[in-house]
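Folding problem:
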Amino acid sequence: MTSQFTTDPAVLVLEDGSRHSGHAYGARGTTLGEVVFSTGMTGYQETLTDPSYAGQIVLQTAPHIGNTGMNAEDPESRRIWVAGYIVRDPSRIVSNWRADETLDEALVADEVIGISGIDTRAVTRNIRSAGSMRGGIFSGAAASLDPAEQLRLVQDAPQMAGQNLSASVSVGTAQVTAAVGTRIGNLAVLDLGVKQATILNLAARGFDVHVLPQDATIEDIRAIDPVAVFYSNGPGDPAASGDHVALLRAVLDQRLPFFGICFGNQLLGRALGLGTYKLPFGHRGINQPVVDKSTGRVEITSHNHGFAVDAPIDGTFDSPNGYGRVEVSHVGLNDNVVEGLRALDLPAFSVQYHPEAAAGPHDANYLFDRFADMVRAETGSSTDSVKDSE
């Protein structure tokens, strides 16, 4: 394993002109993206390999990162997706028997440019006050670029609003994970940036999980004879995903049971005829309190989203697109953001957060059971009448 020490310079430049000098971490060079912060105290490997972070430079608010290294068992996808990585104090050594490599080595292998040794609290406070903003990490030789040129590159980078990033993270061909235990049927998962823990949770509920490319059509979905459809988390602006919304409307028109998480929640909102908007600095971390309005139970949940659905929190309302009555099912307690939707005249619901919650917490894992129960009720199946997948 390589040393965590480096003398190579690096600088973080934000679009407001602020600069933070530190040390190169991971690959060297230049990277641009939306700078966001994640408040998780654990689970940095799961964060890095979450495709929802594509196009974003992620700052960890936890000061000490990398002490457990990286291993081959915990990644949530096939690679690290963050556009860049910001940490204060990278671990000097790896102290975990499961580690296969250091975090620094993994960043280099996936060509992810990072920076360490800066005041991450100051950057976080800036983003909380001014909102998420574009930034750039310039490390190694790129750190010596003229500051005016560095700022120009940052300010010329695309905004996250308006970007459709699903094609960059989705699988190219369909992949199938077999059901575990008593089988319910085939589940069509539209891969907008799905995490491995989600696939495993769905398979554990009895679904043969067919992960389909993001450009799948309603004919592709019907071809697998699905009992339900699932939309995953993913990066980008839901307003730029018109094709995914049109596909979901076709699913709703055919009354196929539907469950969506994170990006899938935003797309259900738009399919129902609701708007979406960009949050000032988003929700990213594993400590977000959400109330389930049907039970009154408060859950601590895992989030990673910068956009939200615009809908009335109290009472029911009619879908502007003609899908009957809808209600907001979950609400974020920090800022009253819509965290879930439920269609009352269709078998469809969604949540804005991550019930698979790798690496925790697991308060919301019951939602996978709720989905399986809904599909059984809609299809008329039961655990006594379906065959075991084995």
Observations:
- The radius of gyration is 21 Å.
- Residues 166-379 form a domain with the Rossmann fold fold (CATH 3.40.50.880).
- The longest strand covers residues 275-292.
